[in-house]
């Protein structure tokens, strides 16, 4: 068996057409998950009652189960719930009209929130408690101290972990193909099946994933240097 190098080149440009959807499936849940993670992390740090145990369970359960299960539960369960509520309250909503992508994004976002909360919590706890006390001494409230003092320093600490979770979700986005979303790996599978050249198509897909991972790592290193310099009062 010989490898068709020309087809690797051709399939590369065919597969990369699925990049926009892949980035949506990767980036949108991470953005939503970041805000979920901040809220969950703060509740767990300050042990806010009565929601603290609920959030603790949320993090434990979603981190302890595969993301594909979250996608399937949302994909099959949420439409049933919406249809039931719609019939009871007369909303007139038909889940058949809701894009499948939305259910995928919800499932991924909930998972991202759980993972983000642990990363953010560790970042906040890594900041010296004296920084918070100093902020209080100049009249800042707790929210102001968190936003202006703690979070900027925590971001610098957690940037490598944020990069890792981006790379992880970039690779995990391939699970969306199980519910008919044509992301990179799904597109590669289709290209491979149509042309009966599986090895070449998957090699092309591998180069795309590797390129995106490489760019993410370089960007993170650049941002980490800038944030660290800023937090130390240096020139950025």
UniProtKB/TrEMBL annotation:
Question: Which GO BP terms sit in this record?
Answer: amino acid transport
Q: Which InterPro entries match?
A: AA_ABC_transptr_permease_3TM, ArtM/GltK/GlnP/TcyL/YhdX-like, MetI-like, MetI-like_sf
Give yes or no: UniProt keyword Cell membrane. Answer: yes
Provide any one GO MF term from the record.
transmembrane transporter activity
Kindly list the residue ranges recorded as spanning the membrane.
20-43, 55-78, 98-116, 158-179, 199-216
Q: Which domain of life is it from?
A: Bacteria
How is the protein disposed in the membrane?
Multi-pass membrane protein
Cellular component, GO annotation: ATP-binding cassette (ABC) transporter complex
Signal sequence residues: none
Q: Where primarily located?
A: membrane
Localisation:
Cell membrane
Its protein name is Cysteine ABC transporter permease
Q: Which UniProt keywords apply?
A: Cell membrane, Membrane, Transmembrane, Transmembrane helix, Transport
Q: Where is the ABC transmembrane type-1 domain?
A: 19-220
Family under the similarity heading: Belongs to the binding-protein-dependent transport system permease family.
